Amino acid sequence: MTYTVAVSGASGYAGGEILRLLADHPDIEIRTVTAHSNAGQPLIDHQPHLRSLAHLTLQDTTPQILAGHDIVFLALPHGQSGQYTDALGDVPLVIDAGADHRLTSPSAWDAFYGGTFHDAWTYGVPELLVDGVKQREHLRGASRIAAPGCNASTVSLSLAPGIAAGVIDPSDIVSVLAVGPSGAGKSLKSNLLASEILGTANPYAVGGTHRHIPEIRQALAAAIPSTGSGTQGGDVRISFTPVLVPMSRGILATSTAPIVEGVSDAQIRDAWESAYAGETFVQLLPEGRFPRTADVLGANTALIGLAIDRAANRVTVVTAVDNLVKGTAGAAIQSMNLALGLPEGRALSVNGVAP
Questions:
Q1: C-alpha span between 342 and 41 (Å, rounded)
Q2: Using one digit for the tens of pLDDT, what is the confidence trace for 292-326?
Q3: pLDDT tens digit sequence for 211-257
Q4: 143-174 b/e with 16+ CB inside 10 Å = b?
Q5: CA 251, chain centre distance (Å)
Q6: Distance between CA atoms of 302 and 59, rounded to whole angstroms?
Q7: Catalytic residues
């Protein structure tokens, strides 16, 4: 069966990456692409690397144009998806790459985003531990999926195994992330100009203000066996600091948490080995090895390195992802495959691009 697809926000980075991956999906027909200010222009003018889609023209983003497809991807700025999802009730599968349907807590939405709150959809991180099972079990047959925030899913995949196994304390997490500017979208911003980011590293959203914090707390709270997915992250405390660095793509997340008293080094490493054994797209590296962002560019992989710092009594987890693939578009398509009953890895690669 071939599924017809519409992609909104198709002139942006996330929309373009969704299209790049879908273009090689044998079960997908990309029928419609939409935008706002760029409507009426050829897609190829904004995504010149998508040569196989040169025949498509960007249309207006309206519920009427998006309706009538088997699948709709929304790659819109935060706070803009909800106005369309409410009107797409007849579309069998809708996948939102924005934040509008990620959070379960209206108060968390108000505190970090503001505006109209929309109900949470099935969270699109298949390998994440939730209530003792992998999130992929909740994605099978889903009709509404919230693709993750790239920073949030990277930190959550880094620490969920240790929390679920009870070997680290989730009340004192520290995460510092080196991130590329493509995560901020394609809109022109003076702080993202080449002259502003080349040759420097710039922290932002410092002091607990980043919008992905409630998403991380929600995801990690769901890994705590005694609380489950109904919590709002009350048992999870995190100091989260992103740092903008001069690479177009990529996230390198360094996260630490205290070791629970009485836990052995073998138990710690086994928590991560057991959680990701057999996983295609989340891989724990051998002891003493740590990933680089260069190793995951263009790939749907999260590579994880684990260190046990007994002097500080903390576990250190270093995770690398491509923010546009495993962090956004790849996670969305992996989740789509599960929802449709297709092979989970279809049209997705573990191989990056080098040099």
A1: 33
A2: 999 999 999 999 999 999 999 999 999 999 999 99
A3: 999 999 999 999 998 644 444 456 899 999 999 999 999 999 999 99
A4: ebbbbbbbbbbbbbbbbbbbbbbebbbbeebb
A5: 11
A6: 34
A7: 150
